[in-house]
Amino acid sequence: MSDESLTGSEGQVAAYRHLAGKYLTFALGVEEFGINISIVKEIIKLMDITHIPQTPGYVKGVINLRERVIPVTDLRIKFGMPKEEYTHETCIIVLEIPGAPAGIIVDTVSEVVDIKSDEIEPPPAFDGKTELSNIQGMAKVKGRVIILLDILAAMSSGGISKVTQED
C-alpha cells in the first residue's frame, strides 16, 4: 500500500514517518523544542561571545571553540520571543550543519527523546499569514508537546548564513 492511498491517521503517520528518531529537546521560555540529534555536535556552557558588527540582533557573534570560529545565534531573538537574561542553565548547542558548524543559544537543554512517527502531527494551520517554515511537526510525548524544528531552515534564513560564508 502506498503512502498516497492511506487516509486519516494512517496517512498522517506515513507522511511523518521520516521525522521519527532521536531528538535533543530544549526550552525557550515555557516552550519545548526538539532538533534531530544527528546534527548536534556538542552542548557547551555559555562562553564569551565576540560581537560581529552589522549583523542582525539575533546573531550574537562568534565563539572560539578549540581554535574554530563558530557563529552563534540566540534562538529566542531569532524566533521573536522576549529577550531574557542568561542564567547558569543557558547554553550553546553546537550544530554540524552543511558548510560550517554553528551554535544556538537556548535557555536549557532537557533530554534526548526517541520520537515515533505516530507521535508526530503536522504543524498547526493558522491564518495563512503566520510563518511556520521552521517547524517540521508537533510531537506528543508523555503528555508534552514538543515543537520539532527544521533547524537547518532556521539557520539558513537571515544573517547566520552571511556570517558562516565569510570564513
Architecture, CATH level 2?
Beta Barrel
- The parts where pLDDT drops under 50 for at least 5 residues are 1-8, 158-167
Radius of gyration: 17 Å
Along the chain, the helix and strand elements come as HEEEEEHEEEEEEHH
Largest sheet: 6 strands, mixed
Shape call: globular
Query: What's the number of helices?
Result: 4
Strand content: 35-45%
What is the CATH class designation? Mainly Beta
The secondary-structure class comes to mainly beta
Q: Percent of residues in helical segments?
A: 10-25%
CATH level 3 topology: OB fold (Dihydrolipoamide Acetyltransferase, E2P)
What features would you highlight for this structure?
43% strand, disordered N terminus, six-stranded mixed sheet, OB fold (Dihydrolipoamide Acetyltransferase, E2P), disordered C terminus, mainly beta, 11 strands, 167 residues, globular
Description:
This protein is about 15% helix and about 45% strand. The chain contains four helices and eleven strands, in the order αβββββαββββββαα. It has helices at about 10-15, 75-80, 150-155, 160-165; strands at about 20-30, 30-35, 40-45, 60-65, 70-75, 90-95, 100-105, 110-115, 120, 135-140, 145-150. A hairpin with a 2-residue loop joins strand 1 and strand 2. The radius of gyration is 17 Å and the shape is globular. The termini are far apart.
